[in-house]
């Protein structure tokens, strides 16, 4: 798993095999989101629209946005609202301004109640229009308007004087009189064009005044994040963290998954691989205690990072694998011997496979043998954290049976050292895996005494047994 690419099938496997744990973590995340919603009071947001008639460039609109959020506008709005304990600086954090399509500026206000949010938006919009009009000079430059009117009167008097001069000129058709009248007409035209340009440049007639497009609508719902959003977000966050945690744990997992790696860690040879039906046994000795019950309820007692068991052949084909392992084991030994079948404690699949090996060794199906062809096997479970194998007594050798992907190289090396310390040579290794069993034929089932024998292993206590 540590070298595999994370695929959707891996995520699906996590959801299938850890659904109870993921459901519990999602509920915890939802409770955390609910608690967060209690710490943050609900807020409401609404906006008022201000229309800017005429032609406006983008930089001019951005300038108006800065004006709307300036301290001058917000402080004036705070003074008109007269909210206790709320200054203009604090109010500025609850005001937002943005440019919409069609030269419209939207001024939004956020407050703890719908009424206060509506009042905040309306007051800021009104103060913005008033302040922008003052900057444009609508109300603060009466002397400029007076000067412009005086200039118009002066131009009119000049035009009348030009007309008098043209009439007083020599009515004859002399060159001098024609040139004089032509120059006077040019002067009249120049004055008219200058006056037209002056009127077009008048700021009072450049852009019409801004208009507030009605009062802000009273909000009917909370502004995000709402309580429901916090609850859902907390559940999704915890669910995502749980999945990431599973993937990270699988990435750093150093458990051996291939038979050659397992054989190298134990320093022995591989005798073969066998299959065990993947159904859970009815009795689980390791399921005692409240911690084990909690792990079983949450589904933590089963591995999630192993692939879904493949469908195997019938029971007869599985027994053939066990018989071949027994035959290879018999061929490696000089004569009939008693061996310990060492199974790591907690490896349920290996324990069941070891019991089946014991049953096959006792059945001794080889022709011409009188129960002395196969070695005599006795199953012992060894703790991986503190491995202890019974001392050499009637048994002289160890056969290690374990499932793939369950143990690290260090743990297997500890088992090999415990076997050597007890005087047992590891004569072989059998790797087992879970499969989905097919319906079996009654003729291929093992004897009843063999089935009972494989269910009762002997736990190692450090002495011979």
UniProtKB/TrEMBL annotation:
Positions of transmembrane segments: 21-40, 228-249
InterPro entries: Bact_polysacc_biosynth/exp, LPS_length_determ_N
Cellular component annotations (GO), alphabetically ordered: plasma membrane
Keywords assigned by UniProt, alphabetized: Cell membrane, Coiled coil, Membrane, Transmembrane, Transmembrane helix
Coiled coil: 148-201
Main location: membrane
PANTHER family associated with the record: CAPSULAR EXOPOLYSACCHARIDE FAMILY (PTHR32309:SF31), TYROSINE-PROTEIN KINASE (PTHR32309)
Protein's UniProt name: Polysaccharide biosynthesis protein
Originating organism: Streptomyces botrytidirepellens
């Amino acid at each position: 798993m540590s070298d595999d690419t994370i695929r959707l099938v891996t995520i699906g496997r996590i959801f299938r095999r850890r659904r109870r744990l993921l459901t519990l973590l999602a509920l915890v995340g939802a409770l955390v989101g609910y608690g967060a919603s209690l710490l943050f009071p609900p807020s409401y947001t609404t906006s008022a629209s201000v229309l800017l008639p005429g032609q406006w460039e983008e930089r001019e609109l951005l300038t108006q946005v800065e004006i709307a959020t300036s301290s001058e506008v917000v402080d004036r709005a705070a003074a008109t609202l007269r909210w206790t304990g709320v200054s203009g600086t604090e109010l500025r954090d609850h005001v937002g301004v943005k440019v919409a399509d069609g030269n419209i500026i939207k001024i939004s206000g956020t407050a703890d109640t719908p009424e206060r949010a509506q009042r905040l938006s309306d007051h800021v919009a009104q103060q913005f229009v008033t302040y922008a009009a003052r900057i444009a000079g609508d109300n603060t430059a009466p002397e400029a308007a007076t000067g412009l009117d005086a200039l118009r009167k002066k131009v009119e008097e000049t035009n009348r004087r030009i007309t008098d001069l043209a009439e007083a000129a020599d009515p004859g058709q002399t060159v001098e009189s024609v040139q004089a009248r032509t120059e006077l007409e040019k002067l009249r035209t120049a004055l008219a064009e200058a006056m037209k340009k002056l009127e077009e440049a008048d700021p009072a007639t450049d852009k019409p005044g801004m208009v507030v497009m009605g009062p802000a609508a009273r909000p009917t719902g909370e502004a995000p994040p709402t309580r429901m959003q916090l609850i859902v977000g907390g559940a999704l966050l915890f669910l995502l963290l749980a999945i990431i945690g599973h993937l990270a744990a699988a990435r750093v997992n150093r458990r051996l998954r291939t038979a050659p790696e397992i054989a190298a860690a134990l320093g022995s040879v591989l005798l073969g691989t066998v299959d065990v039906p993947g159904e859970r046994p009815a009795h689980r000795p390791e399921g005692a205690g409240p911690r084990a019950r909690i792990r079983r309820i949450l589904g933590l007692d089963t591995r999630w990072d192993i692939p879904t068991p493949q469908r195997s052949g019938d029971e007869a084909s599985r027994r053939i694998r066990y018989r071949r392992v027994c035959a290879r084991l018999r061929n490696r030994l000089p004569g009939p011997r008693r061996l310990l079948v060492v199974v790591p404690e907690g490896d349920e699949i290996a324990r069941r496979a070891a019991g089946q090996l014991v049953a096959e060794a006792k059945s001794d199906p080889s022709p011409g043998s009188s129960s002395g062809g196969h070695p005599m096997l006795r199953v012992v479970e060894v703790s991986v954290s503190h491995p202890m194998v019974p001392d050499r007594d009637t048994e002289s050798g160890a056969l290690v049976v374990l499932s793939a992907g369950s143990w690290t190289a260090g743990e297997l090396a500890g088992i090999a050292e415990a076997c050597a310390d007890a005087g047992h040579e590891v004569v072989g290794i059998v790797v087992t895996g879970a499969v989905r069993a097919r319906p079996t034929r009654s003729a291929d089932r093992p004897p009843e005494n063999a089935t009972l024998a494989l269910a009762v292993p002997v736990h190692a206590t450090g002495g011979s047994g």
